[in-house]
Each structure stands twice: as structure tokens, then as C-alpha cells.
Design goal:
This protein is an alpha/beta fold. It has two domains: 118 residues, Alpha-Beta Complex (Aspartate Aminotransferase, domain 1), CATH 3.90.1150; 217 residues, Aspartate Aminotransferase, domain 2 (3-Layer(aba) Sandwich). Helices cover 40% and strands 16% of the residues. The chain contains 14 helices and 13 strands. The strands form three sheets. Strands 2-8-7-6-5-3-4 form a seven-stranded mixed beta sheet, sandwiched between helices. The protein has a four-stranded antiparallel beta sheet with strand order 9-10-13-12, with helices on one face. The chain has a two-stranded parallel ribbon with strand order 1-11. It is globular and about 55 Å long.
Length: 357
Amino acid sequence: MLEARAAVRSLKEYHPPLGGRVGLRLDFNENTVGCSPRVLECLRRLEFDELARYPERESVERQVASHLGVDPAGLLLTNGVDEAIHLICETYLEPGDEVLIVVPTFSMYEIYAAATGAQVITIPAGPEFRYPSDAVLALATARTRLIAIANPNNPTGTVVPRADLLRTLRAVPDAAVLVDEAYFDFYGESLLAEVAKFPNLFVARTFSKAYGLAGLRIGVLVGNAAQMAMVRRVGSPYNVNAVALACLPEALSDQDYIRQYVAEVRQGRELLEEELRSLKLRFWPSQANFVLVRIGERHTAFVDAMRDRGILVRDRSGDSGCDGCVRISVGSNAQTKQLIPALREAVRAIAVAGAPA
């Protein structure tokens, strides 16, 4: 009887709760107000023949490379960051190789790596979800072929100091180091300029968060040109659809729109963290467009109470070290004004321990 590979049969499954998402979507870290109006206008202008022919990435890749200030030969547009992770795993991992991942973090690192038959070694984050640089490097061996790092990290919003990232790159020259900068726009610090110095460095970005293009599924992977030539071999020549390729240049051209949205998210993040302090709830200061907060044993009731008030938030209690935690995304100023009173009501409604009555 036909069977899937053993590595696939033993994979953890990822089940995003995408059904019935009615209300203010603060559960998936998406852009909460939508893409630039220029993107919508581009969609209206699309002609039938643009959808009838195979998409061509190259010219858009040159535009993105210019925007990022990198060598076009070292850049690949991908079907979201998910595909970038998948391609790195398919390019460099074989059964028996080792992959180091600090948890909690984005689950697709482990899923794509394990699917190759590689051994995934998970390392618990340090106190306050700090990146345990010493512990990671102590576990690195000649079999280590990939270290995946989200910076800022999801679901914690914490960041890895630049010095620790550079230390890791120098310590494992024979391993790919993937720095996932999906939330870069809300943080502002990047390792992109180091790609020219480290052949083992790969930086991924997405246009799903600040740019509001999650539905178009488009991201970018940047690395050493020689290494990226190998990565391209395992990818499809038509991985990014024609609609996404048509819209991305318009999204990039409207940086005022991006700056305004990011500014509002940062303001909202500060207001949310201030409110959590006043409610005496434990949270971790974030550099992303979300905040992780510990609700405690009533985390499920809190998620339900927020939904009853028209706001969706994400239960992360199942993640390593996140028992009783809920992640709350941040949106525009108007949405933050809607969030804060609903948060107060929900906390009081479920009588969270430590919160004022």
C-alpha cells in the first residue's frame, strides 16, 4: 500500500484557525487596515492577458533588490516567507542533518526541516524569552546544517541582539543561518547589509504584515549570490503569481502609506503595553506588531470574552513556555481605541487574577 515517507507521517500538523474570523482581526498579525490604495488601483487595471500568461519574476526582483539595496543575483521572490523557509530546507538539509531552533517560535521552521528527515533540536529560550546564544552554540556540531531565527520573534515579540546574530554566523560557517525578518518594519533593525560578508546568511522578509498583501502570498529571500543560485534550483519558476507581481511595485512605491501605518502600530503597541501594566498583567515588551500577554488559567475564557466584544485574539498557550498566554496584534489608532476598553471589560468579566476589579 502506498505510504508517505516516515518523516512526513511523523510531522506535527499546523492548523491555523481560519474559520469564522468575524470582527476586528487581532489574531494573525496581519495588516488590519488593508493595502495601499495604489495596489487596489493596480488590481482594477489588470488585463485578461496578464492572467493568461505565465508570470515573470525577474523585472520585479530587480525593483525589489533596488528598494532593499542588495544584489539582484542574491534575491528571490517567494510565495510568502513560508516558501523561503521550505526552499532553504530543501537546498541544504538531508536525513541525519541537525537543525537548531530556539522555542517558542514560528512553527513552520520545525515542520519544513523535519519533513526532509533532518533532526530538529529545539532549545528553550532563556529568561524573559531571551535568545540563549551560548546554549545554541554549545549544541552546534559538524552535523548542524541550519539555524533558524525569527527576529523579531513570533509569538514573543522579543529580538536577538545583533552581536549574538553575528557570533552565530561566525561560529557555524558550514550551516545556513536563516534570519526571518517578517516583522522588520515594526522593529527597524536588519542584518540585510551583512549578506555580502557571510555566505551562510539568508534573510527573509514578507509583504504580508506592514504592506497588507497577506492574501497575495509574497515574500523575499536574500542571500549570497552563489548560494541563492542553488536555492533557485529547487524552486518553481512560477512560484509567485502574476497578480502579486503586478501589485508589489505599487505597494513599494507608496512608502508614505507604510510609514503611517507602522507609526500607528507602534503607538498602539505602547498604549496596549501601558494598559496591560495598569491591569497588572504579565507581558513581554515587543518589537513587532503584537504583544504576548500571560492571562493564566482562564486564557480560553479571555479569548472568548474578547470575541464576544468583536475582537479576535490568538491563544498561544500551547507554545513552549507560553502556558496561559494570549497574543494580541496591534492595528491602527482607531482600532487601538476599540481594543483598550474591550480588553478592560474582558479582563474584568473573567476575573483574571492580579487584575484590578
